[in-house]
Amino acid sequence: MGVSSGEPVGLGLDLGGSSIKYAVLVGDGAEVRIERTGLHEIVGARDAATVSRMLGEIASELATEFGGSVTLGIGLPGLFDAESGVPTLLPNFPPDWVGYPLRDQVQLATGMSVQLINDARAFALAEARLGAARGARNAICVVLGTGVGGGVILNGELWFGAGTGGEVGHQTVELDGPPCGCGNRGCVEAIAGSAALLAGAGRATVREVFEAARRGDAQAQAAITRSIRAVAAGLGNAYAVLAAEVFVIGGGIADAGDQVLVPLREELRSRMHLAPAETVSLRPAELGRFAGAVGAALFGARGVALH
Q1: In sequence order, what are the beta bridge partners of 71?
Q2: How many CA within 13 A on the CB side of residue 234?
Q3: Domain-by-domain residue ranges, the chain?
Q4: What digits encode the pLDDT tens for the residues 242-272?
Q5: pTM score, two decimals?
Q6: CA 232 → CA 191, 227, 235, 250, 304, distances in Å?
Q7: Contacts for 305 with CB less than 8 Å, ≥ 6 apart
Q8: Half-sphere exposure for 233 (CA within 13 Å, toward CB)
Q9: What's the topology of domain 135-285?
Q10: Is residue 144 within 8 Å of 231, Cβ to Cβ?
Q11: Domain 9-121+290-300: which topology?
């Protein structure tokens, strides 16, 4: 399907450790469609200035191709100052990213207004608007991967609180548990992130962990079970506070499908005593690896017809 003249166009870029994913959304009001998705590998230097230029080039090329009223959102795998558009914590990038005027530099390069959003919050927004949580008034969306990211939808809107609301992975679920990259101990992420899963299973990749468990490897299964229990505890805590009717689970670890979702659903039900378990739905994410880029595009389009 082509783009009609004058249709609002939303561009979303999702910055990862080794690539930049993009999504082009087109539509008006409630009728929004994903026109195109794609990926550019980051080859060579990953310093802030080099990658910033790459972001600007990708956005400019897409804006030229699609034309019309174009907005731009960028998803970042970390934290930033919303007022200045400056990253404050990007764990998997060189230290020069902290304090770099990313938003201003991309705006200068493209001539577009740029909105930044955390990548997990972008995932939540995409799944709420176009994916597994569409139609739900209240949802908790979780990404299980290198870390455990999240986003919360309350009354149909992405919730930020004082700015970092939705960090499901940084709830304490084990007092005096293993240290977490955030500085706390016993966070969901410290127990259920891929580093902890691999260390516990004694395997090199997430796929190997789940393959070993299917073959009956007790160590791999124990690591998976510990991870799932931590995630379920976090979701149960979140439900007690927010009473969301939908949980959406995505990310690389969730790609294991029923090996994660079935025991996670059972463990979560065993921890929910404030409402009938059947009133809450735990669903796999629907938008795949481009969800973050889609959510960034939606966020960038706030205040225009696309949103």
Answers
A1: 10
A2: 34
A3: 9-121+290-300, 135-285
A4: 999 999 999 999 999 999 999 999 999 999 8
A5: 0.92
A6: 12, 9, 5, 14, 37
A7: 8, 28, 29, 69
A8: 19
A9: Nucleotidyltransferase; domain 5 (3.30.420)
A10: yes
A11: Nucleotidyltransferase; domain 5 (3.30.420)
